[in-house]
Specification:
Shape: elongated
Helix content: 25-40%
Oligomer: single chain
Number of helices: 4
CATH superfamily of the largest domain: PDZ domain
CATH class of the largest domain: Mainly Beta
Number of strands: 8
């Protein structure tokens, strides 16, 4: 019976030691956190009194601003089928001395149709142009500042591949989703 009492006393001593160790760690963390907080606050107060060093703000290169068509906000513009086309290719840049430049295309124009093919989610501009050959003449329907125009353009040779037609523009598609599934979708 004495040995059992001795084992129990040892177990209680070990458990008490573990609890004391955990309490000591928690108390030390609290004291350390409070001390760090107070030191940090004192440092902030001190730096508020010290004259600040001049800040050097990095300058980033400015990107060119691409003008977009300026059409007055009217209820007609906002209704379905209004003035701004829902699909097409918005011209963001017309490269100099290219077929587009010679045909009079401008930044902000929206190409809505090539011959009788609409430029939309199912007929991307690059895909429609790929059906032509360099030197061929085609008709573009464009939207410009609220009205539709027809422009005739003679396609050139692509700088990277003389077999591909070239218009000479940078553009973004206005129709982000395909309306019907395509092979490979």
């Amino acid at each position: 019976m004495g040995e059992e009492k001795q084992n129990r006393t040892a177990l209680i001593a070990v458990i008490t030691g573990i609890v004391a160790l955990l309490l000591g760690l928690c108390l030390g963390a609290m004291i350390g956190g409070a001390g760090g907080y107070l030191i940090g606050r004192a440092g902030v107060a001190k730096s508020a009194v010290t004259p600040a060093l001049p800040r050097v703000i990095p300058t980033w290169p400015r990107l060119p601003i691409v003008p977009t068509p300026a059409v007055p906000q009217t209820p007609e513009r906002l209704r379905p089928g209004g003035l701004i086309p829902r699909s097409g290719a918005l011209i963001q840049e017309v490269l100099p001395d290219t077929p587009a430049d010679k045909a009079g295309l401008r930044v902000g124009d929206v190409i809505t149709q090539i011959q009788n093919t609409p430029v939309d989610a199912n007929h991307r501009l690059a895909d429609v142009l790929a059906q032509y050959k360099p030197g061929q003449q085609t008709t573009l329907t464009i939207w410009r500042m609220g009205s539709t125009h027809t422009v005739t353009v003679t396609l050139g040779e692509h700088p990277d591949n003389a077999q591909r037609p070239y218009l000479g523009i940078r553009y973004s598609e206005l129709a982000p989703q395909r309306l019907t599934p395509q092979p490979g979708d």
